[in-house]
Amino acid sequence: xxxxxxxxxxGLLIILTLAVISVGGLVEIVPLFYINDTxxxxxxxxxxxxxxxxxxxxxxxxxxxxxxxxxxxxxxxEMLRYGHYSLxxxxxxxxxxxxxxxxxxxxxxxxxxxxxxxxxVQHLIDPRSVVPESIMPGYPWLIExxxxxxxxxxxxxxxxxxxVPYSLxxxxxxANVERFGEEAARWLDINRAEENLVxxxxxxxxxxxxxxxxxxxALVAYLQVLGTMVDFTQYDDxxxxxxx
Length: 244
Fold this sequence. Notes:
By secondary structure, the protein is mostly helical. It has helices at residues 3-8, 10-29, 50-61, 76-82, 117-125, 141-144, 152-161, 170-180, 182-187, 193-204, 215-225.
């Protein structure tokens, strides 16, 4: 069949297009029925603490995702620069997730612990003071604005409705103890959300000012946890192939 024949026959073109789309769809969908899960079996991944979740809200509010992805692709150059490629398991509690391919700035999937709190604060206030070639705008108001967290329980309840395992009762709390451990379960208790948020902010002192809890505290707490939950030294190089 000549290509010209296909292009000049609208009905035939539609039929062949639908056939190609159908085959492509089946190739994508059928394998899902033959694997147990699309989430990798790893230890350590937990939902965000109340303070980290408020930091994530601020991250989204300020549009950080428009210049920074949180998805390291399984390519050698990206893994050499950023670390192990991103796992679906690491974003299973993210609503919305921050995957993507648009990067004006570096990928942030594993930025946690890479820099000190002081560096992060200075970078957010005046990016060019620490990275002269940066084109990132400054966010000085983050350290000036007190963090609003009176509605933190409502925020966590909303996330609970879409499947994030924050606990409201003793049964759910005990389930989190078994799944994430005692310490993590305490952080994920909605009934103690405000108490936990304040405790983490004061203990971490992320913005360098222990007398206040600012939006900077929350955002830095969030940035410092990114990519730190999974200990990749526990897994062989080929372990994750079975989930791909």
